[in-house]
Write a structure and sequence with these properties.
The chain has about 160 residues and is of the alpha+beta class. It has a single domain (about 35-155), classed as Ribosomal protein L30/L7 (Ribosomal Protein L30, Chain: A, 2-Layer Sandwich). The protein has 6 helices and 5 strands. It has a 5-stranded mixed sheet with strand order 4-2-1-3-5. It is globular and about 80 Å long. It starts with 7 loop residues before the first helix and ends with a helix. Residues about 10-35 have low confidence and may be disordered.
Amino acid sequence: MEQKTIMKPMKKEASKVVVKAAAKEIPQKVSSQSAASNAHKIVVVRIRTEITSSPEVRATFRMLNLDTKNHAVIIDSRPVYLGMLERIKTYITWGKLNPETEKALMKKKKENRKSFPLQPPLKGYGRKGIKLSFSKGGALGDRGEKINDLVMRMIR
């Protein structure tokens, strides 16, 4: 007669070892207040619609509360948010928010809304439209400090 080994107890023991090793590698969480104080604010403006986009892009828009075209949200510059911006960079523009623009946006915000409704910008988005990146003369992607000029032209 042959002896059969039972593998179930070994798997349970092995999984305990993996869990213990993974628990040792988890870094301590930084408090949310200290991380927020070091991060600057970013304003994100939705420029294009999501008609032909993938489900991941639509889900990212829902997570950022960017419901419709010409709406804006203010986020922190955490890596999680920056990854979201990279995913939807062909539909939005963003940049570092200054205090004057933030005050103007807060006046524009409606109650019970998480985003800021804006008008299409005076004098348009850019020389080459909304299908090219900002670095190529279009409107999409990271604008840096120049986002404040665009947002002020969209507030009426």
